[in-house]
Specification:
Blueprint: H1 2-45, E1 51-55, E2 58-63, E3 68-75, E4 78-85, E5 89-103, E6 106-120, E7 127-133, H2 143-158
Protein name: ATP synthase F0 subunit 8
Transmembrane segments: 6-26
Keywords: Membrane, Transmembrane, Transmembrane helix
Length: 168
C-alpha cells in the first residue's frame, strides 16, 4: 500500500515539474539556432560585430569599423536576414504603426508594427527593416524601448569616423 502511494506521488511530482525543466531547454535551443545563424551571416559577410543587441526573436549587430548593420530575426517560416551598409545611409527613422482594438468594452491601442527606414543618399525610396510585426510575433516584450535603443546606437555610428589604434 505504501509503495503504490510513493510511486503515484513521485509520478505526479515528476509530471508537475517536467514542464519547468523542458520549456527552458526548448527555448535555449531556439536561441542557440538564432545565435548560430547570426554568427554564420557575420562570418559570411566578414563582419567583426562590435555592438550586439538581442531581444525576443531578434538579434542585431553593428560593425563599427566597416559601418555595417546586421539584423537576424527568427520567425515561424525561418530566418529573416537584413544587411545594411551604413556608409551609404544618410538618415534613419523609426516608424511605428498601431491598431485600435476594442477589448472588454474599452478601446485600446496595440502596437502593430515597428519598422526602421534607412534613407540612402542617392535614392528616394528607403530600405525598410521590419523589427516587430504583430502578425508574426505576439510578444511585445519592450519592443519599442529596444527599437529606440537600436536607433540611438545606429545614429551614433552613422556619421562617426572609425577609431584607429596607434601602434608604436
Amino acid at each position: 500500500m505504501k509503495i503504490d502511494f510513493i510511486l503515484i506521488s513521485s509520478a505526479l511530482a515528476i509530471i508537475c515539474f517536467l514542464p519547468f525543466i523542458l520549456l527552458p531547454l526548448f527555448e535555449s535551443k531556439e536561441e542557440k539556432k538564432l545565435k548560430n545563424k547570426f554568427k554564420e551571416e557575420a562570418l559570411r559577410l566578414g563582419l567583426n560585430i562590435s555592438y550586439e543587441l538581442s531581444w525576443n526573436t531578434n538579434l542585431t549587430g553593428i560593425d563599427i569599423l566597416k559601418k555595417q548593420f546586421l539584423f537576424v530575426q527568427k520567425s515561424d517560416l525561418g530566418f529573416r536576414v537584413n544587411h545594411v551598409d551604413l556608409s551609404n545611409v544618410s538618415q534613419i527613422k523609426m516608424v511605428t504603426q498601431t491598431v485600435n482594438v476594442k477589448q472588454q468594452g474599452k478601446l485600446e491601442e496595440i502596437l502593430s508594427r515597428i519598422e526602421l527606414e534607412f534613407y540612402n543618399c542617392n535614392s528616394l525610396a528607403p530600405l525598410i527593416v521590419t523589427v516587430f510585426d504583430h502578425d508574426l510575433n505576439y510578444n511585445q516584450d519592450y519592443e519599442l524601448k529596444n527599437a529606440k535603443d537600436l536607433v540611438g546606437e545606429l545614429q551614433k555610428y552613422l556619421n562617426a569616423l572609425p577609431v584607429l589604434k596607434r601602434t608604436a
